[in-house]
Amino acid sequence: MYFVLYRKWRPKNFDDLTCQDYTVEILKNEIISNKISHAYLFTGCRGTGKTSCARIFSKAVNCLNLDLKTGNPCCKCQNCLNIESGSSLDISEIDAASNNGVDNIRDIKEETSFTPSVFKYKIYIIDEIHMLSTGAFNALLKILEEPPEHIIFILATTEINKIPLTIISRCQRFDFNRIGQESILNRLKYISEKENIKIDHAALNLISKVSNGSMRDALSILDQCSNFSDKNLDLNLVKNILGIPEENYIADIVNFIFKSDFKKTLDIINVLNEKSKNFVLVTDEIIEVFRQILWYKTIEKNFEGLSESIKKFVKKTELNMLIKYVDILKSSYNLISKSNNKMADFEILIIKLCNVNTDISKINIKKTEKVEKSEIHEFALWEDIIENLKLKSSTLGRALGNSKAYESEKFLLIDTNVKLAKTYLNSLEHKEIIKQAIFEITEKNYNLGPYPKKKNKIDDFLEDMKFQNVNLEII
């Protein structure tokens, strides 16, 4: 039976885990010193080794020939082999996404009263723990607080913000790092050699880049590419498989953005659509070009990663305009990645980018009229943030439901007439919840504040009297 690469090359011991040095060191020391906790919480993005680490830990605490120097399981005894094959009755892997009810947790609670059939510890690995219902979390609390000595819980999640603090406080929490591009590249080289996959270094580098810190994603892409041909896999072939456009298309799009030529850019978009290119990856490539442009403009004048045609425009472009381009790209990236009509949203993005030059020109003409309004603009993602906020706190989300938000540099100014909403905005605890909801949508950290409204002459007079300690009564 054929095993896909990410299953075949799943880490077997702690030393095989990549970029998780602190987590591995602590777990090893706990096993060697026999200071085993009753509950662990593994959190981090997908493909970083959370479930693999849980399985390795399960083998180590139940291994018959444990290496007391390294804390690694032997992977040869009957206990290790049973866990590796998934045939052990004492190791239960549960998917909380499909077993998220109170009854499922009650079943676990009943099972914990029985001692392990063979092993020293009975272990429950609950993946995607954030998918549990509120009732299920409440049912899990008591078991986590006072479990039997032979029970170990290992909870894994990609969304730690959805886990109740009462659960987190009862576990040892380990944050799994996103795996670095260089580490993924080295691992892909090693596996390619072992599997006799002929692939260029540039192609492997691209795979490690687009995998975005996930080893599983990188191995899945390598597996897919290796099945295309027995011949040598080059960069262009991998790009076509992934739906990444050729560099000349990206260069042309950037050139036409600088020229504010939407029509010619639209022609390229239609060609990319006919070739079934991934517009999320197209946006990512454009962001990378603008990152290189900023690098060229601010730090390294001899940067060789840009074409001469783009360099010509860069020399004529002010830094504040380049930053404006990048801000628009970053704010639109999340929308395009979640959109059902990616081409339409990408076209809207291009329209915005092509109009930046015009907008900046208008601002420069009115430099003498630089007022507060020119620095503050309505925040387009506020409705998405409100929806995200309702998932975290329905009361807070409803209170801010009819509000508006305005962006001014690093500030997000919220305009609301609801008294309860204003109260929440003055609360540090609720501010942190709002900031978290904003960061999940925008990946930016904003300072929150009230939207400055125009004051009439009466307001100014009253404030002046108040400053002079004159008490007025309005009737």
From TrEMBL:
Q: What class of enzyme is it?
A: transferase
Signal listed as a keyword: no
Q: Which molecular function term from Gene Ontology is one that the record holds? A: DNA-directed DNA polymerase activity
Q: Does the keyword Metal-binding apply?
A: yes
Gene3D superfamilies, A to Z = 1.10.8.60, 1.20.272.10, P-loop containing nucleotide triphosphate hydrolases
Catalysed reactions, semicolon-separated: DNA(n) + a 2'-deoxyribonucleoside 5'-triphosphate = DNA(n+1) + diphosphate
Q: Which SUPFAM superfamilies match?
A: P-loop containing nucleoside triphosphate hydrolases (SSF52540), post-AAA+ oligomerization domain-like (SSF48019)
The catalytic activity of this protein is classed by the Enzyme Commission as: 2.7.7.7
**Which Gene Ontology terms describe the biological processes this protein takes part in?**
DNA-templated DNA replication
InterPro entries per record: AAA+_ATPase, DNA_pol3_clamp-load_cplx_C, DNA_pol_III_gamma-3, DNA_pol_III_sug/sutau_N, DNA_Rep/Repair_Clamp_Loader, HLD_clamp_pol_III_gamma_tau, P-loop_NTPase
Task: Please provide, in alphabetical order, the Gene Ontology terms of the cellular component aspect for this entry.
Answer: DNA polymerase III complex
- Any coiled-coil regions, as ranges: none
Give the matching SMART domains: AAA
Origin: domain of life: Bacteria
What keyword terms does UniProt attach to this protein? ATP-binding, DNA replication, DNA-directed DNA polymerase, Metal-binding, Nucleotide-binding, Nucleotidyltransferase, Transferase, Zinc
Q: Where is the AAA+ ATPase domain?
A: 36-180
The Swiss-Prot or TrEMBL record describes its family as follows: Belongs to the DnaX/STICHEL family.
- According to UniProt, the name of this protein is DNA-directed DNA polymerase
Which organism encodes this protein? Candidatus Paraimprobicoccus trichonymphae
